[in-house]
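wait is this the right file?? whatever heres the structure
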């Protein structure tokens, strides 16, 4: 933060193609997930995408850090973050990693999907990049812009256009996945692209690092692109112990990253299909929220790191684009009980 098909299991060493679609298990997987849910299994399926901010989850899964919480967490890798909400709604997965703008859209559409834990916020890891013909966001007018609709890239672009006095009617939008943006820009057919790591580094490294530049990034809007862990309300009610265990496992993964950064970089790099060096570089573009700061996201404040402030901006943008019909109450987008309980401990 980021169809109905999804791609199960770890991407292993499959490089950046780890975010591309793998064999879909379809109805069979849905039936397995449904029976698992009914039986109260300790195996939890989480939908995710390859994003540096989810590093603690990759570490926790690889080292089986959930075992002491009597859990087995299986990360289901999606090629497109926009596919995760429907998989949650169908019960094909138990929960997933989304960006907060996605949650606002889901709740506005009548789906009871709630944030149970803030994960991170992008601090430069999401960006709009352009060639030499573009100096500022105002130069986007009349130009092609490649981005993934209904994703963090879409939201970042909308925000950048709005604060610069433009709308999506001033550009020529070209729909493409985040992974497709580097090739489209390299070919010369796309002067502007919106994507996130690791695709962002791919673009910026072209031409010896001189061909493309960042024009606007999540650094310009701290907290607005916030990654969160989400579950449907019915799963929250049915599996509170499991959700608490997932949060604890995530925190253990984060602690491991701080205690053993080199080893953690190898694990994360293997999952993402990048080198440990690239992992460390990409980590500078994201801020993983420590337990002590998590409660702030659920409290009314003017800072955009609060869901009340960022949610208002997000809702107004989505409303103006016709992506939602009404602004949902901020309280309907989250369930703070797990973070509150763990913070008190």
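ok assuming it is, sequence goes like this
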């Amino acid at each position: 933060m980021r169809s109905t098909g999804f791609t199960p299991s770890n991407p292993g060493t499959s490089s950046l193609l780890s975010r591309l679609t793998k064999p879909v298990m379809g109805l069979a997987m849905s039936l397995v997930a449904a029976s698992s849910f009914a039986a109260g299994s300790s195996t939890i399926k989480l939908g995710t995408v390859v994003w540096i901010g989810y590093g603690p989850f990759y570490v926790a899964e690889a080292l089986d850090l959930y075992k002491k919480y009597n859990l087995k967490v299986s990360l289901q890798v999606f090629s497109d973050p926009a596919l995760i909400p429907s998989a949650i709604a169908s019960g094909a997965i138990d929960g997933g990693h989304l960006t907060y703008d996605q949650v606002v859209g889901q709740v506005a559409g009548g789906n009871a999907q709630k944030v149970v834990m803030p994960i991170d916020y992008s601090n430069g890891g999401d960006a709009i990049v352009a060639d030499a013909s573009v100096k500022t966001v105002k130069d986007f007018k009349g130009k092609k812009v490649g981005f993934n609709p209904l994703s963090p890239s879409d939201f970042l672009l909308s925000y950048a256009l709005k604060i610069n006095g433009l709308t999506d009617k001033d550009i020529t939008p070209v729909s493409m996945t985040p992974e497709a943006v580097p090739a489209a820009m390299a070919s010369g057919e796309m002067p502007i692209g919106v994507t996130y790591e690791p695709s962002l580094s791919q673009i910026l490294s072209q031409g010896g690092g001189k061909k493309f530049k960042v024009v606007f990034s999540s650094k310009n809007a701290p907290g607005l692109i916030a990654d969160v862990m989400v579950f449907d309300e019915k799963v929250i009610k049915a599996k509170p112990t499991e959700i608490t265990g997932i949060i604890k496992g995530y925190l253990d993964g984060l602690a491991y990253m701080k205690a053993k950064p080199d080893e953690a970089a190898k694990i994360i790099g293997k999952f993402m299909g990048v080198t440990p060096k690239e992992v460390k570089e990409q980590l500078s573009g994201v801020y993983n929220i420590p337990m002590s700061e998590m409660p702030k996201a659920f409290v009314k404040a003017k800072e955009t790191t609060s869901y009340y402030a960022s949610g208002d901006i997000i809702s107004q943008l989505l409303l103006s684009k016709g992506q939602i019909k009404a602004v949902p109450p901020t309280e309907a987008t989250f369930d703070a009980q797990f973070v509150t309980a763990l913070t008190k401990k």
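Residues 260 and 309 are 35 Å apart (CA to CA). so i think its the right one actually
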